[in-house]
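Hey,
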Amino acid sequence: MRRMHLMYHGIHDGTSSPGHFDPVYSITRQRFARQLDWIANREHPNLFHITFDDGDVSNVTAALPMLVERGLHATFFITSGFIDRPGMLRRSNVRALADAGMHIGAHGMSHGFLEDMDVETLRRELHDSKAVLEDITGNAVDAMALPGGRGGARELDEALACGYRDLYGSRPGPDEDDPQPRWRNRIAITRELGDAKFAALANWSGPAAHWARLRHGALAVPKRMLGNARYQRLRAALT
């Protein structure tokens, strides 16, 4: 059986919840609890890898206690330059996640798209984000989630040279059959995702998996045609 990597961002019941509410990626506490219960009740819960991107404060105020209650673990990919900003994790929060047995990964310093950077800027982004988190936690940081899921062969080579082992993107699906721990696929968990569809995606079965793959492929076309900056402006206008 291949491992599934699930990508979350924040746990928010609404705009008044602590942190930065996102109409697409913010999951309610109730829905997150049901999803965690579903994972915890699987025969092999470790095949479902829970990850969080960016470093929203709800990662520690909401997600952490719910994970600990069920004996589950997660990886928190933190944008180092966002630490201590309003609504984001503080340094003490990052340490609390690590002390609770959670894995800490990098998500860049600025959340800029790595593939848009010149090589020197890319190297600083990879190195500095890793160094900040290692200084806070005292632990090695060997995994990184690509901001926006954007990256290719150059970014992989530079990340490996910097000491990372795994790069996580946003291509939906389970781990590839390639045994080398390098590229990791992930399924984005969104606010509108109902329980049945969540289970289908986590199991990577049925029409839900088929449409997730098709949607990802279809969105790749405007990203290539418009470029990252113009695509993001269009996406923001339509959200």
